[in-house]
# Entry
Amino acid sequence: MSVILRTNHLTKRYGHRTVVDNLSMTIHEGDIYGFIGKNGAGKTTLIRMITGLAAPSDGNLLLFGSSNLLEGRKQIGTVIESPALYPGMTARENLITQCKLQGVTDESQADSILTLIGLSDTGKKKVKDFSLGMRQRLAIGLSLVGSPKLLVLDEPINGLDPEGIKEIRDLILKLNHDRNITVLISSHILGELSRLATRYGIIHRGRLIEEFTETQLFERCHTKDGKAEMDLEEYFLNAIGGK
Ligand SMILES: Nc1ncnc2c1ncn2[C@@H]1O[C@H](COP(=O)(O)OP(=O)(O)OP(=O)(O)O)[C@@H](O)[C@H]1O
# Structure
Protein backbone atom coordinates (compact mmCIF):
# COMPACT_ATOMS: atom_id res chain seq x y z
CA MET A 1 0.00 0.00 0.00
CA SER A 2 1.54 3.30 -0.98
CA VAL A 3 2.26 6.09 1.46
CA ILE A 4 0.21 9.24 0.78
CA LEU A 5 1.64 11.43 3.52
CA ARG A 6 4.64 11.12 5.76
CA THR A 7 5.79 13.77 8.19
CA ASN A 8 9.32 13.49 9.54
CA HIS A 9 9.97 15.15 12.90
CA LEU A 10 7.71 18.00 11.89
CA THR A 11 7.91 20.88 14.36
CA LYS A 12 6.24 24.28 14.63
CA ARG A 13 7.28 26.92 17.10
CA TYR A 14 5.62 30.23 17.72
CA GLY A 15 8.20 32.30 19.60
CA HIS A 16 9.44 30.08 22.41
CA ARG A 17 6.36 27.85 22.30
CA THR A 18 6.50 24.53 20.48
CA VAL A 19 2.96 23.74 19.33
CA VAL A 20 3.81 20.78 17.05
CA ASP A 21 6.71 18.82 18.45
CA ASN A 22 8.87 16.41 16.44
CA LEU A 23 5.82 14.79 14.91
CA SER A 24 6.22 11.81 12.57
CA MET A 25 3.03 10.37 11.12
CA THR A 26 2.17 8.18 8.15
CA ILE A 27 -1.02 8.00 6.15
CA HIS A 28 -1.44 5.15 3.67
CA GLU A 29 -3.52 5.08 0.53
CA GLY A 30 -7.14 4.28 1.36
CA ASP A 31 -6.93 5.28 5.03
CA ILE A 32 -9.56 7.33 6.76
CA TYR A 33 -7.15 8.71 9.32
CA GLY A 34 -8.83 10.08 12.44
CA PHE A 35 -6.73 12.76 14.06
CA ILE A 36 -7.61 13.25 17.72
CA GLY A 37 -6.49 15.76 20.30
CA LYS A 38 -7.85 18.19 22.87
CA ASN A 39 -8.34 21.88 22.08
CA GLY A 40 -4.98 23.46 21.43
CA ALA A 41 -3.19 20.11 20.98
CA GLY A 42 -1.81 21.21 17.60
CA LYS A 43 -4.17 19.53 15.10
CA THR A 44 -4.93 22.60 13.01
CA THR A 45 -1.30 23.69 13.03
CA LEU A 46 -0.23 20.29 11.68
CA ILE A 47 -2.95 20.43 9.02
CA ARG A 48 -1.85 23.96 8.08
CA MET A 49 1.71 22.73 7.58
CA ILE A 50 0.51 19.82 5.44
CA THR A 51 -1.57 22.08 3.23
CA GLY A 52 1.05 24.83 2.99
CA LEU A 53 -0.71 27.48 5.08
CA ALA A 54 2.09 27.42 7.68
CA ALA A 55 5.80 26.74 7.29
CA PRO A 56 7.48 24.13 9.53
CA SER A 57 10.13 25.39 11.96
CA ASP A 58 11.85 22.01 11.69
CA GLY A 59 11.42 18.60 10.06
CA ASN A 60 9.80 17.94 6.73
CA LEU A 61 7.04 16.12 4.95
CA LEU A 62 6.56 14.00 1.88
CA LEU A 63 3.40 13.95 -0.20
CA PHE A 64 2.76 10.92 -2.39
CA GLY A 65 6.32 9.83 -1.72
CA SER A 66 7.84 13.07 -3.01
CA SER A 67 9.37 16.17 -1.46
CA ASN A 68 7.90 18.26 -4.32
CA LEU A 69 5.17 19.75 -2.14
CA LEU A 70 3.99 22.22 -4.79
CA GLU A 71 3.00 19.31 -7.02
CA GLY A 72 1.74 17.17 -4.15
CA ARG A 73 -0.55 19.87 -2.81
CA LYS A 74 -2.33 20.02 -6.17
CA GLN A 75 -3.66 16.58 -5.29
CA ILE A 76 -4.99 17.61 -1.89
CA GLY A 77 -8.52 18.88 -1.26
CA THR A 78 -8.95 20.82 1.96
CA VAL A 79 -11.75 22.02 4.20
CA ILE A 80 -10.31 24.00 7.10
CA GLU A 81 -12.35 26.02 9.58
CA SER A 82 -15.13 28.16 8.07
CA PRO A 83 -15.34 27.31 4.39
CA ALA A 84 -15.18 30.21 1.94
CA LEU A 85 -18.41 30.00 -0.05
CA TYR A 86 -20.06 32.72 -2.14
CA PRO A 87 -23.37 33.24 -0.30
CA GLY A 88 -25.09 35.06 -3.17
CA MET A 89 -24.44 32.22 -5.62
CA THR A 90 -26.07 28.83 -6.10
CA ALA A 91 -24.21 25.62 -5.31
CA ARG A 92 -23.55 25.05 -9.03
CA GLU A 93 -22.26 28.61 -9.50
CA ASN A 94 -19.91 28.14 -6.55
CA LEU A 95 -18.57 24.95 -8.11
CA ILE A 96 -18.16 26.52 -11.57
CA THR A 97 -16.29 29.45 -9.97
CA GLN A 98 -14.01 26.99 -8.19
CA CYS A 99 -13.38 25.16 -11.49
CA LYS A 100 -12.39 28.48 -13.10
CA LEU A 101 -10.12 29.40 -10.19
CA GLN A 102 -8.32 26.08 -10.53
CA GLY A 103 -8.17 26.22 -14.33
CA VAL A 104 -10.48 23.22 -14.71
CA THR A 105 -12.05 23.75 -18.14
CA ASP A 106 -14.38 20.75 -18.05
CA GLU A 107 -17.37 22.24 -16.23
CA SER A 108 -19.18 18.89 -16.28
CA GLN A 109 -17.03 18.20 -13.23
CA ALA A 110 -19.20 20.73 -11.38
CA ASP A 111 -22.35 18.75 -12.20
CA SER A 112 -20.92 15.39 -11.26
CA ILE A 113 -19.71 16.83 -7.93
CA LEU A 114 -23.13 18.41 -7.37
CA THR A 115 -24.71 14.96 -7.71
CA LEU A 116 -22.05 13.33 -5.56
CA ILE A 117 -22.63 15.74 -2.66
CA GLY A 118 -26.40 15.42 -2.94
CA LEU A 119 -27.07 19.05 -3.91
CA SER A 120 -28.16 18.60 -7.53
CA ASP A 121 -31.76 19.44 -6.66
CA THR A 122 -30.99 22.84 -5.07
CA GLY A 123 -31.53 24.70 -8.38
CA LYS A 124 -31.67 28.47 -7.96
CA LYS A 125 -31.44 28.40 -4.17
CA LYS A 126 -28.62 30.62 -3.00
CA VAL A 127 -26.01 29.37 -0.56
CA LYS A 128 -27.04 31.99 2.00
CA ASP A 129 -30.33 30.06 2.32
CA PHE A 130 -28.62 26.67 2.79
CA SER A 131 -28.54 24.77 6.06
CA LEU A 132 -25.16 24.36 7.76
CA GLY A 133 -25.04 20.74 6.61
CA MET A 134 -25.65 21.73 2.98
CA ARG A 135 -22.91 24.36 3.20
CA GLN A 136 -20.52 21.85 4.63
CA ARG A 137 -21.26 19.37 1.84
CA LEU A 138 -20.71 22.15 -0.68
CA ALA A 139 -17.40 23.02 0.99
CA ILE A 140 -16.34 19.38 0.58
CA GLY A 141 -17.60 19.55 -3.01
CA LEU A 142 -15.39 22.56 -3.73
CA SER A 143 -12.42 20.68 -2.34
CA LEU A 144 -13.14 17.87 -4.82
CA VAL A 145 -12.60 20.09 -7.87
CA GLY A 146 -9.43 18.86 -9.54
CA SER A 147 -10.02 15.27 -8.33
CA PRO A 148 -7.73 15.21 -5.27
CA LYS A 149 -6.30 11.94 -3.98
CA LEU A 150 -6.16 13.16 -0.38
CA LEU A 151 -8.91 15.03 1.41
CA VAL A 152 -8.01 16.97 4.56
CA LEU A 153 -10.99 17.84 6.74
CA ASP A 154 -10.54 19.90 9.90
CA GLU A 155 -13.55 19.47 12.21
CA PRO A 156 -16.02 18.98 9.34
CA ILE A 157 -19.02 18.09 11.51
CA ASN A 158 -18.79 20.82 14.16
CA GLY A 159 -22.16 22.38 14.81
CA LEU A 160 -24.11 19.97 12.60
CA ASP A 161 -27.32 18.25 13.68
CA PRO A 162 -27.50 14.42 13.61
CA GLU A 163 -28.93 14.39 10.09
CA GLY A 164 -26.18 16.72 8.83
CA ILE A 165 -23.56 14.55 10.54
CA LYS A 166 -24.93 11.42 8.88
CA GLU A 167 -24.87 13.08 5.46
CA ILE A 168 -21.23 14.06 5.89
CA ARG A 169 -20.39 10.55 7.15
CA ASP A 170 -22.09 8.93 4.13
CA LEU A 171 -20.31 11.33 1.79
CA ILE A 172 -16.87 10.66 3.29
CA LEU A 173 -17.43 6.89 3.12
CA LYS A 174 -18.61 7.16 -0.49
CA LEU A 175 -15.56 9.23 -1.48
CA ASN A 176 -13.27 6.75 0.24
CA HIS A 177 -14.91 3.55 -1.02
CA ASP A 178 -16.02 4.56 -4.51
CA ARG A 179 -13.36 7.09 -5.48
CA ASN A 180 -10.47 5.71 -3.46
CA ILE A 181 -9.86 9.09 -1.84
CA THR A 182 -7.68 8.94 1.27
CA VAL A 183 -8.99 11.10 4.12
CA LEU A 184 -7.37 12.89 7.04
CA ILE A 185 -10.09 14.05 9.41
CA SER A 186 -9.81 15.82 12.73
CA SER A 187 -12.81 15.82 15.02
CA HIS A 188 -13.74 16.23 18.66
CA ILE A 189 -16.79 14.08 18.17
CA LEU A 190 -15.13 10.77 18.87
CA GLY A 191 -18.27 8.63 18.77
CA GLU A 192 -18.78 9.78 15.20
CA LEU A 193 -15.12 9.50 14.26
CA SER A 194 -15.09 5.87 15.40
CA ARG A 195 -17.81 5.11 12.83
CA LEU A 196 -15.55 6.31 10.04
CA ALA A 197 -11.86 6.02 10.76
CA THR A 198 -9.71 3.07 9.77
CA ARG A 199 -6.59 4.44 11.50
CA TYR A 200 -6.04 6.94 14.27
CA GLY A 201 -3.39 9.27 15.57
CA ILE A 202 -3.55 10.90 19.00
CA ILE A 203 -1.83 14.25 19.40
CA HIS A 204 -1.21 15.65 22.85
CA ARG A 205 0.65 18.89 23.56
CA GLY A 206 2.00 18.87 20.02
CA ARG A 207 3.30 15.28 20.17
CA LEU A 208 1.93 12.25 18.38
CA ILE A 209 1.59 9.88 21.30
CA GLU A 210 -0.07 6.93 19.54
CA GLU A 211 -1.02 5.65 16.10
CA PHE A 212 -3.26 2.58 15.77
CA THR A 213 -5.66 0.84 13.42
CA GLU A 214 -9.38 0.30 13.94
CA THR A 215 -8.63 -3.40 14.55
CA GLN A 216 -6.12 -2.52 17.26
CA LEU A 217 -8.63 -0.13 18.78
CA PHE A 218 -11.24 -2.89 18.81
CA GLU A 219 -8.82 -5.34 20.46
CA ARG A 220 -7.79 -2.80 23.07
CA CYS A 221 -11.38 -1.84 23.89
CA HIS A 222 -12.90 -5.33 24.03
CA THR A 223 -12.34 -8.41 26.17
CA LYS A 224 -11.24 -11.68 24.51
CA ASP A 225 -14.88 -12.77 24.29
CA GLY A 226 -15.83 -9.57 22.48
CA LYS A 227 -17.36 -7.60 25.35
CA ALA A 228 -16.95 -3.84 25.00
CA GLU A 229 -15.01 -2.32 27.88
CA MET A 230 -14.22 1.11 26.51
CA ASP A 231 -15.12 3.38 23.64
CA LEU A 232 -12.81 5.65 21.66
CA GLU A 233 -13.48 8.55 24.01
CA GLU A 234 -12.37 6.57 27.09
CA TYR A 235 -9.43 5.11 25.20
CA PHE A 236 -8.34 8.61 24.20
CA LEU A 237 -8.65 9.96 27.75
CA ASN A 238 -6.59 7.03 29.08
CA ALA A 239 -3.95 7.58 26.38
CA ILE A 240 -3.46 11.21 27.34
CA GLY A 241 -3.45 10.29 31.02
CA GLY A 242 -6.93 11.68 31.67
CA LYS A 243 -5.52 15.18 31.41
N1 LIG B 1 -0.39 31.85 14.61
C1 LIG B 1 -0.20 31.45 15.87
N2 LIG B 1 0.57 32.15 16.71
C2 LIG B 1 0.77 31.77 17.99
N3 LIG B 1 0.23 30.65 18.53
C3 LIG B 1 -0.55 29.92 17.74
C4 LIG B 1 -0.82 30.25 16.38
N4 LIG B 1 -1.63 29.29 15.84
C5 LIG B 1 -1.88 28.43 16.84
N5 LIG B 1 -1.24 28.78 17.97
C6 LIG B 1 -1.25 28.06 19.25
O1 LIG B 1 -0.84 26.74 19.00
C7 LIG B 1 -1.55 25.82 19.82
C8 LIG B 1 -2.14 24.75 18.96
O2 LIG B 1 -3.22 25.30 18.20
P1 LIG B 1 -4.05 24.48 17.14
O3 LIG B 1 -5.08 25.41 16.58
O4 LIG B 1 -3.13 23.82 16.22
O5 LIG B 1 -4.74 23.39 18.07
P2 LIG B 1 -5.93 22.41 17.75
O6 LIG B 1 -5.52 21.08 18.23
O7 LIG B 1 -6.32 22.53 16.31
O8 LIG B 1 -7.06 22.98 18.67
P3 LIG B 1 -8.62 23.22 18.38
O9 LIG B 1 -9.21 21.87 18.47
O10 LIG B 1 -9.01 24.12 19.50
O11 LIG B 1 -8.71 23.85 17.03
C9 LIG B 1 -2.58 26.63 20.58
O12 LIG B 1 -2.13 26.84 21.88
C10 LIG B 1 -2.66 27.92 19.82
O13 LIG B 1 -2.97 28.98 20.67
Notes: Residues 82-147 form one domain. The two ends are 35 Å apart (CA to CA). The longest helix spans residues 162-179.
